Amino acid sequence: MKSPVKNSFPLGFPWQTQDPFLFCVYHLDHYPKGKEDMSPAATLEGRNLGNDFTVKDGWRMYHGQTIPGFPSHPHRGFETITIVNKGYCDHSDSLGAAGRFGQGDVQWMTAGRGVQHSEMFPLLQTEKENPLELFQIWLNLPKASKFVDPHFKMLWHEDIPTIEFEGGTVKIVAGLYEDVTAPKPAPDSWAANAENEVAIWNIHLNANTSFSIPKTDTPINRTLYFYEGSELKIGDNVIQRNFGIALDASHDTTIRNGRKDASLLMLQGKPLDEPVVQYGPFVMNTEEEIQKAMQEYRITQFGGWPWPYPDNVHPKEKGRFAQYPDGSLVEK
C-alpha cells in the first residue's frame, strides 16, 4: 500500500506552507505576570524593542515597545486567520473594527483591497503568568477577489465545533469532519466555496492512540504540522516533533501517536494555481500590482488609523468582544 507521506520537513519560523496557504506561524510565549498597564512585570532590558523575536526568558515582545505584539501594519490581497488557544489578542483596524479574543477564539480577516490592523497581546493577569499560544495563517485570495472590500469576522470558541473521538479531539476551524461543519468563513474567502475543500483542524491525540484523515477525490494540498508530543507514525514513516508532513490527500491517512500526548495543525485546500508576487504584507499576482499597492498605501494609508496609538489595546476590564465597522457590538 502506497504511503500517504510525500515528504517531511523541519518546522522553522514561519512554517512552510502549500498553495492556497501563504504563511503560517506558531507563537508560544510564556509571558510573566502583567502590570496594571498590561505590560510585562519584568525588565525589558537586553531586548531589541521594536524587533524582539529572540526567545528570552521564554517570551518575545515582537514589534511591541511596551506591550507584546504587532502595532498597526497594512495588508492587501489575502486573508489572515488568527487562532488564539491560550491568552488574548487585542485587534484594532482601519475600518474602525476592534476586538479582544482568546481562549480558543478565532479571528478571520479579509484584507482584500487593503486594511491596516494591529494585534497586541495584553497581559491581563497580574497575579499569575500570562501564557500565549496562537497560530496566524495567511490564506491567499484568487485574482478575482484581490480587491474585495475588507471584512472582519469573529469565530467565537463556543461556536467552533470540537469533535471528541476515542483517543482525542479535533477542532474544526474551517471545513468539515464526519459531516460536522465549521462556522462560515468570511464571505469572499477561497474557503467559502465548499468545492475548494479548505480545512483548518487543530488535532489533539492522547498517548498511544490513532486518528484517521479520510482521502478526497479533489486534487488538494494537505499538510500536517506536528508541534507538540514525541513522535508519530504514518505508515512506515516515523515523524519527530517539530516536523511538517506533506500528505497525498488521495489516500486515507492514519496517524499513530507515540508515548506522549500530541498536538497537530492541519491545513488543506484546493490550490489557486495562480502567480504569487509578495512584498512583505502585500500579496498580488504581478510585480506591477505590488508597486501600485505600495503607492496607494503611501497615499491613502488604506483609510488611515482611527485609534489613539499604533499599538492600541483595549481597557483592561473589558472581556471578550467584537466591535464591527457598522457599529454593532458583540460581548462575550
UniProtKB/TrEMBL annotation:
This is Pirin family protein. Residues 201-303 form the Pirin C-terminal domain. Gene3D superfamilies: Jelly Rolls. Residues 61-139 form the Pirin N-terminal domain. It holds the Pfam family Pirin_C. Belongs to the pirin family. InterPro entries: Pirin, Pirin_C_dom, Pirin_N_dom, RmlC-like_jellyroll, RmlC_Cupin_sf. SUPFAM superfamilies: RmlC-like cupins (SSF51182).
